[in-house]
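Q: What does the assembled structure look like for these inputs?
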Amino acid sequence: MSATQSAGTVVSRTPVGDYHHLVIAAEGIAEHARPGHFVALAIGGVDSGMLLRRAFSIYRTSTTGRHGETVEIVFAAHGKGTRWMADLAPGDPIDVVGPVGRPFALPKEPVSCVLVGGGYGSAPMFSLATALRDRGCPAHLVLGAATTPRLFGLSDANKVGSSVHVTTEDGSTGTRGRVTDVLGDLVDTTDAAVVYACGPMGMLRAVADVAEDNGAWSQCAVEESMACGIGVCMTCVLPVEGEDGIVRMVRSCVDGPVFRGDRVRWDAVGTIPPGTLGGPR
Amino acid sequence: MSYAPHDFGGPISPDEVDLSVDLCGVALPNPVMTASGCAAAGRELDQFFDVAELGAIVTKSIMLNPRSGRATPRMAETPSGMLNSIGLQGPGIDAFLARDLPWLVQRGARAVVSIAGDKPADYVELARRVGQAPGVAAIEVNISCPNVENRGLVFACDAESSYRVIEECRPHIPDDIPVFAKLTPDVTDIATIAGAVADAGADGVTVINTLLGLTMDPDTLRPRLGGVTGGLSGPAVRPVAVRAVWQIRKALPDLPILGVGGIRTGFDALEFVLAGADAVQVGTVIFNDPGAPMRVVRELRDELAVRGIRSLDTVRNAAHG
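A:
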């Protein structure tokens, strides 16, 4: 798999609830993108004082639209870089690197799957659901957020999900509570073999635990801040246990962003846990 | 005070510009390298440009043993720059020599291997092993990484320590492999340190490593980096780097210098050459633009062509005249 650096152009930016939906025309990315891949965007133009790329899960792509090849993302304007993005208008240039990372692994057998998206972490779940159902895997969707404007993609979910479940912490839509409040029962009743998740680290940790408790594998797309997005800066590392039982600090950009939930040392994210390869002695 | 502008004649075609450099006997097609720590061992960047076309690939500093690096967060964006506290995460020399270096050499890139250690004996062992490995174009001795537990271990802060590391490892490296010592600008007089490593047998110096910095988190009101302090890099440090090159060139007219610090454009690279650099390295800007190293080569060629300058020898040190 190889990433492309592409001089992209904004096709549209549309506010959606508390988020923005950005469509970028960029060549060389869409046809290689798989669910779970991300793009790394340069912020602020060629002379920008903001040097670090911002990484976003790919929401969807197209190779056949009237704008040529497009890639779409969803973002929240919560920092300096994303606030700049929130002012993007059609025709604005934006440099895109992608597709990057390891995508979600798909089951070989037609097993039932549950897909969990926290906030705009739901963005990659709809193309994933489509890919799963194309291979005969039922794809049950769980969308969760603090409150209704922070849910993303409910109408997509209703189109592609085998079933759709919504939670909000304030109860404004769906079940009051968190995704994990409905997840255990859902994995049980659907006899799911795999749980896919994308969202905040705390949610991923809880989802991985629920999946394991209910006998399912989990595939978690992590959200670590990155500087380059292409594997050269060693910024976005987290402790992950390999098949050999050894914990290594691995790059979420190229070794992830999707990891098996039972491999990530969630308790130790932000530290170098004892026994890590090359750790302090 | 003002200077008369340099005039090298009218514009020429970019094809007429010769960017080649003889760096202590190593022929480079152009003077642009990656900076250590910003290009891993080259493989990831090969999808964005042909690593064999660049002047050289300088690897991330390699140590004797695998190292996990420091806790996250390891990076914080700052105005026109960034602070990092990676802490020299890497696979160790065995894996590097088995996997990374052979790929670079087979790919046809000129491999400049950066080495780093906790004590002089580490550097000696690394020098010996890298010096014997086939295909190494040059060795950069990183004696100035700021991300170590003990500031006393930043050898390049002290002329005597710098001298000792270079003096001990130079004899273990074949004479035809040039050795560059990478220096920190966080010293009173960087030219003194450059003189010390040159006396110890370094063929040249690489200036500058990152500057030690600190930034606070507005939510926690504590340092933003897991490692508390970090190394500042990016265009924000470029004038400091150009100054360091200038001072060393003034003090040591014949010492080969690799200029590094915040280079983003072809003119940025030219600034370093004017101040006295023999070649330059592009670092942090790679994170912003992975194609930057070869873009800088093209832009440098254009900057020279538009001014009628046919070769780098014509303009090197020109700002001193």
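Helices of chain A lie at 80-85, 125-134, 154-160, 179-190, 201-213.
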